[in-house]
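Complex 293.
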Amino acid sequence: MNIRDESARCLLCANAKCTEVCPNGFDPARMIRAVRFDNARCAAKYVNTDICAVCDGKCERECIHPDFPIRIRKTASALPACEYTDKPSLEIDFMGIKCENPFFLSSSIVAGNYEMCANAFRMGWAGAVFKTIGFIKPDETSPRFDAIRKEGTPFVGFKNLEQISDHSLEENLSYLRRLKDDFPNKVIVASIMGETDEEWTELAKLVTDAGADIIECNFSCPQMVDEGLGSDVGQNPDLVKCYTECVKKGSSLPVLAKMTPNIGNMEVPAIAAVKGGADGIAAINTIKMYFRI
Ligand SMILES: Cc1cc2nc3c(=O)[nH]c(=O)nc-3n(C[C@H](O)[C@H](O)[C@H](O)COP(=O)(O)O)c2cc1C
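Predicted structure with flavin mononucleotide bound:
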């Protein structure tokens, strides 16, 4: 018997008797439909082939087909093993935080305000690392958007021309607050950058109060104009350890230390961050590129 042909005889009853009377609570009607519509690979999940093989077949006796009943038990016994169980899940646990999938916007131009993060959440992103915020407010031209082109391909990524956010700290904190209020199940990572020990601690407190789930320390921005910031910190293991400790002092949230790749051995600052209390390492910030003119 060809199960595809057998299922094609089914009359596709809306409230199928076969399912209604199954003493085991299976859904033979759904099984037949799956086979009929070329989804035999998951048909077996609606029945249990072993149990159907020894059942007395009430489903078939109740079948309303005018010629002869659909051979449900024979169909069940010929099914391929089910390749699917329940709905697939991409859920992960990240440093103790439940994330609906492992996809996050990185801290950058695409996560720089409420609307961008909100749109990403609506599209299914599990979280966003908000654009780095701090007390420092760079004076930049806007917009600072540019594409990286390569070998005739017009776009292979965004160029990183930016320092940290040029919105005020209050504005950024209000974005974080609104995002958490409107999307409580999404994961908000606050990327922060301070200039002093006190600023790192204070920023950690402020973003925690604003509803962040995770804090990321930006030890890695390659573009900061002033010295002692961004990747200057990431290349100095003592500062990395010290500032990580300051952040842990201001918050009990999990803390990520974001590394610069523009260094001989990234393990050295990464280990320093862990010694300072970091719960995870974010790798990596922008690779510096040198163009030959
Ligand atoms: C336009 C732009 C702005 C960025 N701004 C930040 C930032 O504010 N904070 C930060 O930690 N990383 C920043 N990044 C770095 C990204 O978060 C990311 O680490 C980097 O682009 C490397 O990842 P990719 O190879 O997937 O692009 C920025 C990157 C770009 C392109």
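The pocket of flavin mononucleotide is lined by residues 106-109, 131-132, 157-158, 160, 162, 164, 191, 218, 221, 258, 285-286 (CB under 6 Å).
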